[in-house]
Write a sequence for this structure.
């Protein structure tokens, strides 16, 4: 049974984008702040800190979650993926990122890392979604500059060019 | 914002969790998915001396269908229940209501039991539990009890759980061959509903109607639905009885109006 007192720091080890890393944190530290300040992975953005805006969405064990609604200590031993994992080592954008660029689906880019991670999870589970399904998942994010139409178009392009088998519904 | 400091404990078994609850009582908060608790901690609406994290207790992360009852453990996420293979056939109303709980991203972590424990009057899962006349299984070191939905949800954010008790599971009686409808009005899809309305019709044609967001807890009632006019009368009379309440999102009068229209729609959807 793991027990950590409020002002005590504990060592948290996890896999971030394929690399095993560890740092110390007190229990109240949010995963979003641990990624940015503890591990230096600043691609994940912090917006509302109560789960509404979606900017901080990351994958934990392959599943999209709000890193601001997860304690760093809860990520012990987990596999965390952030936006830094998407592009190739030489900087080449992955298909989802390229489609966002092609469709002007980002402007200031603040909300983009979270949206990309949500759809990395969702498109892996649902390679050929309907537009309604895309909009339902996108409703978990707030974007204040491009609006949502171009984001939907970008995701539709990636979904329709995917070679994965079509799912029902 | 950031939460105030708290002690953190991650028990490996239910027995360890119960011992911690016996020791700390209402100084402690149970952390499962954290999708209601952590926002409140971050906004400093609440504080806790101790967080007891039950999310890795394997015996709580189970869904069982046994003897016509679907039992959902306290660590089961909303999306895990939504992916349960027989859900649409055996528990159609759960399949209709669960997609309206929060967002895809919060359902990946938010638990079924946690939403019921939080007891927001307009949230979907307490209404679903009431519609199924389900029960909440509470365990403490002194024993285990199963509390019916109508006794568990007492008022806004208030339940029958005692400070030393852990919700270990909730039970939904399965109802195959039921016609169902679930509708809600929210400012934005995925936000808390202003009101949520559900209807279910069994094989004998009897219609049960339920509403969240009109009273301090979800309420249900059998309504006569032989024809649209008698259904509208019954709904109108009920709206005046429950009254509704005023908040930032809607006045009580607006809630009654929403309820009359939405309830007529869901009853028409399930009546044949």
């Amino acid at each position: 049974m793991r027990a950590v007192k409020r002002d005590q720091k504990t060592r948290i080890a996890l896999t971030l984008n394929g690399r095993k890393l560890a740092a110390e944190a007190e229990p109240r530290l949010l995963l979003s702040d641990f990624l940015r300040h503890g591990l230096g992975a600043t691609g994940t953005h912090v917006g509302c800190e109560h789960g509404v805006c979606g900017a901080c969405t990351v994958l934990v064990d392959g599943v999209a979650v709000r890193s601001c609604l997860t304690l760093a200590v809860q990520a012990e031993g987990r596999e965390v993926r952030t936006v830094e994992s998407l592009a190739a080592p030489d900087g080449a954008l992955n298909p989802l990122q390229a489609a966002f660029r092609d469709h002007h689906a980002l402007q200031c880019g603040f909300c983009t890392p979270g949206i990309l991670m949500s759809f990395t999870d969702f498109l892996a589970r649902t390679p050929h979604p309907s537009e309604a399904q895309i909009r339902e998942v996108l409703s978990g994010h707030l974007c204040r500059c491009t609006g949502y139409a171009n984001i939907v178009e970008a995701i539709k392009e990636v979904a329709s060019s995917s070679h994965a088998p079509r799912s029902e519904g | 914002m950031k939460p105030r400091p708290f002690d953190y404990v991650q028990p490996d078994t239910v027995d360890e969790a119960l011992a911690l609850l016996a020791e700390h009582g209402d100084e402690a908060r149970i952390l499962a998915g954290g999708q209601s608790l952590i926002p409140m901690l971050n906004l400093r609406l609440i504080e806790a001396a101790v967080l007891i994290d039950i999310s890795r207790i394997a015996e709580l992360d189970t869904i069982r269908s046994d003897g016509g009852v679907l039992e959902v453990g306290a660590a089961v996420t909303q999306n895990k229940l939504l992916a349960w293979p027989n859900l649409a056939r055996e528990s159609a109303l759960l399949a209709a209501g669960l997609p309206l709980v929060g967002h895809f991203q919060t359902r990946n972590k938010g638990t079924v039991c946690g939403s019921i424990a939080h007891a927001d009057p307009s949230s979907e899962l307490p209404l679903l539990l009431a519609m199924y006349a389900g029960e909440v299984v509470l365990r403490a070191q002194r024993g285990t009890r199963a509390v019916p939905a109508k006794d568990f949800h007492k008022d806004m954010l208030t339940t029958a759980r005692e400070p030393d008790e852990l919700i270990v599971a909730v039970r939904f009686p399965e109802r195959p061959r039921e016609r169902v409808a679930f509708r809600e009005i929210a400012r934005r899809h995925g936000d808390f509903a202003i009101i949520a309305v559900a209807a279910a019709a069994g094989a004998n044609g009897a219609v049960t109607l339920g509403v969240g967001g009109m009273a301090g807890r979800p309420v249900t009632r059998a309504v006569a639905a032989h024809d649209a006019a008698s259904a509208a009368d019954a709904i109108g009379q009920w709206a005046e009885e429950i009254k509704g309440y005023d908040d930032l999102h809607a006045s009580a009068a607006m809630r009654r109006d929403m309820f009359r229209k939405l309830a007529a729609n869901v009853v028409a959807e399930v009546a044949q």
User: Anything to note?
Assistant: The longest strand of chain B covers residues 193-201.
